[in-house]
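Supplementary Methods. Inverse-folding protocol.

Structures were first reduced to a discrete structure-token string of length 196. This string, shown here, constituted the complete conditioning input.
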């Protein structure tokens, strides 16, 4: 936390803490042995910072039976998200407010989380961890046909890669932030829905 100014700011505001119950260390793992069972996949070689669950502008009790999912966004949005939760936004291709998630940490990390946090020559990214009510979303592939997703995430079927909620922000809870170092072998593409 102390090495990254943005994390230091969040810690000073009481959003994250190195000693908070629920923080996680995600060890390196071999994804060839991973099977997608409908719940979001956990990351590899990352650090999770638990936050007090927030949904639709208020603090809430953690819904432990809800599904894990991930949301990638620009750093400029993180503070508002950890304060107010994920709120619907008007997408580029339509006029209906929606919330987008993914069961794939790797896809949100590689495609949506930007800009990078720099520590010397090292690059890191933050991904928002959420819990989502079962059956509150529609599963589909990348509607923008941005890239061949199997090169970014090969454990989750392409038609399950994105979870689209309606505008009911009460169906999703923001529960944490996950920090992961960007290595040269990570696929990174600029997705047109995120500003860098």
């Amino acid at each position: 936390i102390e090495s990254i100014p943005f994390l230091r700011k969040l810690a000073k505001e009481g959003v994250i803490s190195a000693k908070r119950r629920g923080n996680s260390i995600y060890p390196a793992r071999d994804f060839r042995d991973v099977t997608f069972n409908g719940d979001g996949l956990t990351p590899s070689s990352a650090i999770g910072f638990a936050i007090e669950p927030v949904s639709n502008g208020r603090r809430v009790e953690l819904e432990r039976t809800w599904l894990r999912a991930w949301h990638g966004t620009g750093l400029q949005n993180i503070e508002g998200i950890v304060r107010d939760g994920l709120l619907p936004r008007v997408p580029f291709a339509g006029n209906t407010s929606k919330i987008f998630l993914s069961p794939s940490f790797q896809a949100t990390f590689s495609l949506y989380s930007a800009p990078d946090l720099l520590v010397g020559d090292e690059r890191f990214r933050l991904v928002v961890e959420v819990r989502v009510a079962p059956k509150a979303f529609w599963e589909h592939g990348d509607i923008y046909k941005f890239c061949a997703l199997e090169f970014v995430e090969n454990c989750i079927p392409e038609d399950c890669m994105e979870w689209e909620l309606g505008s009911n922000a009460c169906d999703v809870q923001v529960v944490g932030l996950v920090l992961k170092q960007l290595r040269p072998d990570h696929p990174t593409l600029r997705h047109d829905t995120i500003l860098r």
